[in-house]
Design brief:
- Helices cover 68% and strands 11% of the residues.
- It is mainly α.
- The protein has a 3-stranded antiparallel sheet with strand order 1-3-2.
- The relative contact order is 0.09.
Length: 130
């Protein structure tokens, strides 16, 4: 059986293939962040760019562990590096990393307050006021 590209099968198939590829890339990016140590590292980088030694002291891991996690974050494009002498400094690759961390924090707070029930109660109160 001859395989055809999604584009050759039509615009709907091409769109589905594009959405699937995008979803896979988004999942890979979130998976790269999905570790408690990597989240601590990213939170520490919110203040300033840091070297591995500073991050290991602040995040509470060994230098080799932090270095391994930084390599994964760098490979995913979440952090960038800058070399100065023998030191390598790490920073967020884009400001939106902070927005992702804030969103995660807000979701946890939302869920701790009852999540959907809290939203439903607020919506019902707002509806009654109208």
């Amino acid at each position: 059986m001859k395989r055809t590209s999604p584009a050759a099968r039509g615009p709907v198939a091409a769109r589905r293939a594009g959405l699937a590829a995008r979803a896979a890339a988004e999942a890979a990016l979130l998976k790269a962040m999905a570790h408690p140590m990597r989240m601590r590292i990213l939170r520490e980088l919110a203040y300033a760019e840091r070297c591995v030694g500073d991050l290991s002291a602040a995040a509470g891991g060994s230098i080799s562990t932090v270095s391994r996690h930084l390599a994964q974050l760098h490979a995913a494009g979440i952090v960038r590096t800058r070399k100065r002498g023998t030191y390598v400094f790490y920073a967020w690759s884009a400001p939106c990393v902070g927005k992702i961390l804030t969103c995660v924090h807000n979701m946890l707070r939302h869920n701790a307050r009852g999540g959907e029930r809290a939203c439903a109660r607020r919506t019902m109160k707002e509806t009654k006021k109208r």
